[in-house]
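As a representative case, we now present a protein record of this kind.
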Amino acid sequence: MTGIGRFFSTIRSKIVFGNLLLLILMGGSLWYLRVNIVSAGEAIAAQRAVLEKSDSANAAAKTFGEFKYWLTDFAASQLNESEDQAKKQHGELARHLKSLEAVDPKSVAAIRRHADEIVKFMQEATNAYLDDNRVLGNSMLAKSRAGAETASTLIQGVVASQQVLARKAGDAVVGSTEQAARIAVILLFIAVGTGAFLAWLILRAISRPIAAISPVVDALAKGDLSVRTAARGNDEITVMSRKLNEAIAHMRASVQEVTGAAAPTPLPRPRRKSPPGTRTCRAERRSRRVLWRRRRARWKNSRAP
């Protein structure tokens, strides 16, 4: 038997191996779930970053609309409040565009250039209106509106691209979570099935030898010493079966010794008397007379003073 076979030959080793295998499965399951949780966390962080960029893009679109409104109002009314609000919205737009440079630097640069041109055209239109040059003012205002439309289209493109990225990030989070849930269920079934199979193997390794020993024990209880157990293997129950066979053999030998000592000793055969008149009969009479004379001489010697 090889070293591995000798290791798995005992019930203790089977129980240890089963527990170790279950621990490995549980550890692997927990490690896989940890990896998926970390991956899901990274996907959520990526989704959050995309959503922040999407919010910045939406805020840039809203700010750009406010910026166009106050510039148009300033060109028409020449109010200082409108000019201040236009400058404020221009600064907010620059701040939002700066946060979007990492997403789409080409579109951001174009939007920033168009925003600066809009400010320039609006200032020229305002100066033309102040000089009562409405033709030039209207021309600058038309250029400003064209640049605003182009910039607005670019901003909407950035917003749309960020929304697509946000949806993809959300789908990635959902897919990672669903995959982790599926794998967790699969690992659970594997662990339960493996545990049930190992438990069946251990119970089988214990119950079958015990079931084989039970008839032998019943026969011994009835006084039958001719039975023996079929000891196969090297586990603890097999060792116990061999010891039981040795005990039965010793009991059988002891019983045989006791029964042999208690057997009745055969009586000596009675001597047959020789028929009278034969030589054997005369020799017997002479031997009896000699024996009687010796006894009488010993008696007289014992009576002498």
